Here is the input.
Amino acid sequence: MIKHEQGGPAGLFLTLEGPDGAGKTTQARLLQERLQALGKEVLLVREPGGTAVGEIIRGLLLDPRYPEMTVACEVLLYSAARAQLVVEQIRPALARGAVVISDRYWDSTLVYQGLAGREDLAMIQSINFWATGGLAPHRTFLLDLEAEKGLLRVRGAKGDLRPAGGDRIEQRELDFHRRVRRGFLELASWEQKRICVIPADKAAPLVHDCIWEKVIPLLQ
Ligand code: Z5A
Here is the structure.
């Protein structure tokens, strides 16, 4: 795995990862509220996006009009948005001593484009190391949920798992989303110290409790 500098100088860098619909955005907000209630400065960002340049790249990446986009092109665009986010938002916040919560980070590229997308993993690691200056999260919470359940959450309760509608990535086949789930678990097995696997198939407040239990020691 990437050899990296961890978390930056003063703050705490946390990331949330997992398949589509695992509840990352919900958990990021709950964690932000809990930390703010303790008086912590919290920066919540999402990937791709979080900067003016990054939001434009996000629009391009998710646009269903470009089904021809290659996986290599995706790697470069996600990493470009990340490079901008790290310099503009994440590093300054960490330097102030803030807690940074990122809704997805480089593990998503390693999994969606590498392990599930079958693009060169070592190359993705090198590009990301370069793009971020080697800035790794202190802790990553992997929300683990079966692909079918996550897609049902995202696509509504109609029980329809067919890849119609949704953004360019949501439209991919169920088999791809199953590889995403397996890919995240594989990554977690390689980096057990950094990546905590959180079962996400329970009510949101219960999932939050599991995450919070692991955050408390990091605040001390
Ligand atoms: N992508 C990539 O390929 N490579 C990369 O490097 C990066 C990203 C950074 C980002 O789109 C897409 O880009 C993503 C991966 C790819 N793939 N897709 N599509 P996005 O940001 O729009 O989507 P996302 O990050 O996958 O988020 P999401 O699918 O919208 O879901 P989520 O953030 O994990 O979940 P949520 O928004 O919190 O909740 C989804 C629904 O489930 C919502 O109705 C909630 O109320 C409900 N929910 C949440 N928690 C629960 C629990 N515990 N129980 C029941 N229902 C729940």
